[in-house]
């Protein structure tokens, strides 16, 4: 039977998960997300062969960049929005800035998640991202990198809490709806796994 490890950034995002859920909180940002996710995986499955029986479920709130973005998304692609990949390629480097989540077992819904360490609340940063992505967060790419490098399956599930504009500044008031929706998703997912 596959063990589930839920990874989230903030305790408010996991407020409605059952107490028996194996949850690890990373804190905010990519460096912490990569480090904490790697440590959590290695503590649960130190041997490579054990990792085949582990699935990381990344639950989190996110900003919606496109008009009407609402509800639950299971991205197909996650990108590192902090790297100037075009400039690096022009200089002869090959940055690892895009992960197709099918590499870690998730077909996804076709959406693109852009991850970076800056908080997006409108302005030029948001305007630039609209051309590249549907959603924005601060941990997803790092969690995907850790899972890919360690050979662990990943389900990435994001709930739109705000529009990555003025609403983003109300995250504390809006995250409760995301936490409820993410808990419902996880309950349905666990029920499906149990009946499979």
Topology, pairings included?
Elements: E1 3-8, E2 23-25, H1 30-44, E3 54-64, E4 72-73, E5 77-80, H2 85-90, E6 98-100, E7 112-115, H3 123-130, E8 135-137, H4 140-150, E9 153-162, H5 171-195
Parallel strand pairs: 1-2, 1-3, 3-9, 5-7, 7-8
Antiparallel strand pairs: 3-8, 4-9, 5-6
Helix pairs in contact: 1-4
Structure characterization notes:
- This protein is of the alpha/beta class and 196 residues long.
- It has one domain: 3-Layer(aba) Sandwich (Rossmann fold).
- Helices cover 33% and strands 23% of the residues.
- Strand 7 (112-115), helix 3 and strand 8 form a beta-alpha-beta unit.
- Helix 1 packs parallel to helix 4.
- The chain is globular and about 45 Å long.
- 38% of the residues are buried.
- The mean pLDDT is 92.
What portion of residues belong to β-strands?
Answer: 15-25%
What's the count of strands? 9
- The coarse silhouette is globular
Radius of gyration: 16 Å
Output the helix-strand order.
EEHEEEHEEHEHEH
Helix percent reads 25-40%
Which keywords apply here?
196 residues, alpha/beta, 33% helix, Rossmann fold, 9-stranded mixed sheet
A few lines on this structure:
The chain is of the alpha/beta class and 196 residues long. The protein contains five helices and nine strands, in the order E-E-H-E-E-E-H-E-E-H-E-H-E-H.
């Amino acid at each position: 039977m596959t063990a589930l490890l839920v990874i989230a950034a903030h305790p408010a995002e996991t407020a409605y998960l059952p107490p028996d859920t194996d949850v690890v909180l990373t804190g905010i940002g990519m460096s912490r997300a990569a480090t904490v996710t790697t440590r959590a995986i290695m503590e649960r499955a130190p041997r490579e062969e054990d990792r085949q029986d582990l699935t990381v479920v990344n639950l989190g709130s996110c900003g919606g960049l496109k008009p009407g973005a609402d509800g639950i998304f299971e991205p197909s692609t996650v990108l590192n929005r902090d790297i100037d990949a075009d400039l690096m390629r022009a200089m002869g480097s090959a940055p690892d800035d895009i992960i197709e989540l099918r590499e870690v077992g998730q077909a996804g819904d076709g959406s693109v998640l852009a991850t970076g360490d800056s908080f997006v609340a409108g302005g030029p940063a948001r305007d630039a991202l609209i051309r590249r992505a549907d959603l924005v967060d601060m941990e997803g790419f790092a969690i995907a990198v850790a899972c890919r490098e360690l050979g662990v399956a990943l389900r990435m599930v994001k709930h739109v809490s705000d529009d990555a504009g003025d609403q983003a500044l109300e995250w504390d008031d809006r995250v409760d709806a995301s936490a409820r929706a993410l808990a419902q998703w996880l309950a349905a997912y666990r029920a499906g796994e149990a009946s499979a």
